[in-house]
Amino acid sequence: MGVDLLHVKGLSELDAEGPVVMLNLMRFRARSLDGDGSGWDAYLRYSALTVPMIKARGGTLLWTGRAETIALGEPAGQKWDYLALVYYPRVAAFIDMMTSPDYENLCDPHRRNGCEDHLIIATRETYSKFKAG
């Protein structure tokens, strides 16, 4: 799991001009791989570094929350601890951040240390009660 799993080809095929919201699903390790606290602690270090990088690219953190339980569907293999919705003005802004040396060298180690699994789904708005930005 890591930047090496980034699907740049698929992302590049999305409409380059439209905004994108990334749905992040995270499962944390009980203990950070570097031994510095829990997986959650490592994720907080990751977030402290990545949120400014997101904002520098015109993005914003829209929403975060704890995953409580599977409400519909097969729960097997679907245990997530935390979710985040992150807005980017263009998919290129997301790719730029994820492939930057600062992200790879400074941020991603904390993410890897803290997350047992991290899935990001690129989404496009079809309806919204609130507007991002």
Tag the structure with descriptive keywords.
133 residues, alpha+beta, Alpha-Beta Plaits, four-stranded antiparallel sheet, 4 strands, globular
How much strand? Answer: 15-25%
Low-confidence stretches: none
Find the count of extended strands (DSSP E, 2+ residues): 4
Percentage of residues assigned to helices: 25-40%
Strand order of the largest sheet: 2-3-1-4
Tell me the radius of gyration.
15 Å
Run of helices and strands? HEHEEHHE
Global structural class: alpha+beta
Number of domains: 1
Count of helix runs: 4
CATH class placement: Alpha Beta
Distance between the first and last residues' Cα: 29 Å
Question: How would you characterize this protein structure?
Answer:
With 133 residues, the chain is an alpha+beta fold. It has one domain: 2-Layer Sandwich (Alpha-Beta Plaits). The chain has 4 helices and 4 strands; from the N terminus they run αβαββααβ. It has a 4-stranded antiparallel sheet. α2 (39-56) runs antiparallel to α4. It is globular and about 40 Å long. It starts with 7 loop residues before the first helix and ends in a 10-residue tail after the last strand. The mean pLDDT is 89.
Write the layout of secondary structure elements.
Layout: H1 8-12, E1 20-28, H2 39-56, E2 60-66, E3 82-88, H3 91-98, H4 101-114, E4 115-123
